[in-house]
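User: Here's a protein and a ligand (protoporphyrin IX containing FE). What would the complex look like?
Assistant: Let me lay out the input and then the predicted complex.
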Amino acid sequence: KKTKTPPSPPGLPLIGNLHQLGRHTHRSLCSLSKRYGPLMLLRLGRSPVLIVSSADLAQDILKTHDRAFASRPLTKLSDRLLYNNRDVASAPYGEYWRQMKSVCVIHLLSNKMVRSFQNVREEEITLMMENIRKSSSLQNVSHHLETLTNNVICRVALGRKYGGKTDFKKLTDRLSEMLGTFSVGSFIPWLAWIDWIRGWDSQLEKLAKELDAFFEKVLKDHEDSSIDRDRTDVIDALLAVRRNKSAGFEIDRVSIKAITLDVFVGGSDTSFTLLEWAMTELLRHPKSLNKLQEEVRTICKGKSSVSEDDLEDMPYLKAVIKEALRLHPPFPMMAPHYSTEDVKLRDYHIPAGTQVLVNAWAIGREVATWGLDAEEFKPERHLDSAVDFRGHNFELLPFGAGRRLCPAVSFAVVLNEVVLANSVHGFDWKLPVESMEDKTDVVESTGFSVRREFPLYAIASPPTCLT
Ligand code: HEM
């Protein structure tokens, strides 16, 4: 019986639609969807890939048929770098994933754990503010924010910092870069030799070995109880779960290393990217920046910094974060989903074994939902709106939704809010004149998480109206 499949842009022999992905996949796919509709079926090499670009179809995938689409495609990259997919993010849907995700939600990223890292956040923010004060007035804002998020994630996950020029920082930079590449062989198996010739295979092997050696060493240090640490980090928490058998199942060393690596992959680039875009938009919209400053400085009148308890009374700050996440979701295409059973989606037949990419970036800019000014940065649109990013509203999906929802929403939100609030509380900011005129200043990078291509520079000066 003939089955109906979603519309497909014409592709080329062998490579299918691979050549249409472009430098910025979320943008290329958004353009294609304007022509072929919000549900398209592409062929990337030999893999069928469903592209979803509207809120109601995202709801069909992530809510109505959530279980059927809750797996992940297996790739050589995740297989080698993420311990044969023994982490949470790349694990196929099933019992192992369920167990590890529950460990993340209950033991690593619970509200209690998030609160326990308050000191880490405060100390690193104080350090960043001092560094800004000490530097000249023109600041490399991107560098300050990247250092801060990297320090926080290192301390939370590993118990100490590995910043600046350390080997681990270089290793995680290589990891981020590698995650933005893909193996030709995964899409076109008979061209797998290209990965070998271009050195991709050997780079992958080398990186996987070096990462494992690093995590093995950190794990051994944690197991050695003679090394004193002042607070429980992610590895300590995982070792305690294993020791006390509190999860109700076994967690071995490989799982501990894989989950810790997830915290890096999921945690550092994303928070930094969000803060970088939020500051970019505020600097390009001085009225919004002034409004935010006024809110923060009124609530924290007479204080030298913003504490996490102050954040509750800052609706405009929350609206700024939401707006930055709407226009610049750090993972614009979320993470790929994969169907494990046949699904009837609207009138279409989607067979098991189909990859699904939800274009959160395109959904955040849909005119039908967000209006004719969808492309504009306007935090005010969120002030009287109940739309949130915790997975219930499919028009705003920076953290995904359904079973695969990011387990670290609370962790990420408090970090981003408190950093942004302190940055605008402690300084007045403006763009250098040449950046105001330079349109290329907001070019996006390529890769899995999409940050600015060029660092953000801005002029910081002591606050004018801090009382
Ligand atoms: C602004 C910050 C962040 C953003 C925007 C973000 C976004 C996302 C997205 C889009 C997904 C995929 C959802 C899906 O497939 O439906 C995801 C998954 C995940 N994130 Fe985050 N994330 C952030 C911070 C973090 C942090 C700080 C951590 C760890 C401490 C983390 C850990 C994870 C993990 C483990 C998964 C995999 C969940 C699963 O597959 O079941 N994320 N995140």
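Summary: The chain has one domain: 18-461.
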